[in-house]
Structures are given as C-alpha cells and as structure tokens.
C-alpha cells in the first residue's frame, strides 16, 4: 500500500508493521474505482473552472453543437445538395456530429490533463489516471444534452426505438468513450515528455470528422476507393461508433428512401465490424494503460 499517515498511526498502535510502496507506482485504471471521492471532486473542479465567470454556463453544451450543426448542414446539406438525396439528412448528420464531439472533447482534454494539472501532481501523490478519466466524465456532462436534443427531435418525427437500437446506442457510446480515453492516455503520456503531442492531437481531431461517415455516406468510400480501402476504413472504431448511432437514431426514420443502398448502415455492422471495433478499442486501452503506468513515476520530474 502507499504511504497513509492514518493507517500508519493505526498500525503503530497495534504494534504491527506496515509495508510502504514506492510513490508513483499504481495499479493503473483500477485505482480509479478505489478513488471515487477524489474523482468526483476533480470532475466538479473541472466543470467549475470551465464555466467560471460564464453567464450561460452549461447552456454552451447546447449552443456549440447547434452552431456546428448549422454550419455543416448549410455547407453539406444545402450547398452540396446532400439534403435532397438523403432522407432526414439532418438526423443523419447530427447523430454523427455528437459522436465526434464526444471523441474530440475526451481525446483533447485527456491528452492535456496531466500537463494541465502539473502543479497538483508535483505537490501530492494521487492516482494520475483520475485526470484523464475525469475528462471523460466531464465530456459526458456535455454529451447527454446533445443526445437529449436528438431523442426529442426523433420522437417528434415518429421514431419508435427498439431494444436493438438501444443496444446500438450503448455499444456506440462504449466504443467512442473507451477509444477516446485510450488515445488520451497514450498521447497524455507522450505530452509530458514531448509537447509536440498536443499538435498531433489537434491534427487528429481536425481530420477525424472527415475520416468517418459523419457528413457523407459510407457507400461513397466504397464506390470511390474500392472494397479494400472500405475494409481498412471500417477498421477505424470511430467509423463503427458513428454507424451504430446512425442505426439507432437515423435509419429507423428513413422509411422511404429513393434507393435503399443510399441509406442502410454498413453490411455486417453487428456480426463483424462491431466485434472488431471492440477488440481494437480494448487493445488500445490496454496499451494506453500500460504506457501510462510505465512512465507515470516520471511525470512529476518532467513537469
């Protein structure tokens, strides 16, 4: 166990011995579950700091995606005419945008979490994984209002969700949450030693929306690049997560497509690509957790 003054006093009173562990060693993400109180405090702090002196506060969780949606819908839906060739294109696009918003916020903030909390890390020891995990929880605070908006709009136009669609939502949410956290652990570790990592994070976030079927249909990739490139394209867990959200929120509302091939989700989404995405996601998390634990003993020194 780590150094704990209270435990040390209790052990000294009973005359037994206590074994101390070298500071900086941890059990990785498992320490997060035993530090729920600290995690809650960090999440509260992050939300308060972000909206300090802000008039609108959490209302920005609605304004930012609304503006983003408006810009993309005008450019892609109106100017490029995608709104005419795809039924309920607004639902299609917004269900993908909220997935990428969650990814971008978790990945970006988790990658900067260690450097951003360097002052605290240098003063006391606490499980450093709490900081990137807190970025995930804060992102969900902003993600849920966006999902609520999408659900309300879908219900208005006659959406009747099934258990399969509910499963698509939870599976897509799991993939995007875990994958973005895993990348945050990897790049957050690299960012401590090489500040250039932040530039790579910004670059990935910038192109991520365009490398997933958020603004366009997956069939365009297959038609333009061929089946081989399409298979490589589907190895991206972000693509699978977006398609799972499309299956949940958009596909049931597109009841009268001009051409079914233009609107159905990727073939074998559940039987092939979702299991592959889960394997890649979990493997990335294991790698991220390993690298984080491997180098976290040097974080305070480097910061």
UniProtKB/TrEMBL annotation:
Membrane-crossing segments per the record: 62-82, 89-110, 130-157, 169-194, 200-221, 272-292
Record's keyword terms, sorted: Cell inner membrane, Cell membrane, Membrane, Transmembrane, Transmembrane helix, Transport
Principal subcellular localisation of the protein: membrane
Biological processes annotated in GO: lipopolysaccharide transport
Annotated membrane topology: Multi-pass membrane protein
Cited InterPro entries: ABC2_TM, ABC2_TM_bact-type
Domain annotation ABC transmembrane type-2: ranges: 56-295
One Pfam entry name: ABC2_membrane
GO molecular function, one term: ABC-type transporter activity
Compartments reported by the entry: Cell inner membrane; Cell membrane
A GO cellular-component term linked to this record: plasma membrane
Protein family membership: Belongs to the ABC-2 integral membrane protein family.
Name of the protein in question: Transport permease protein
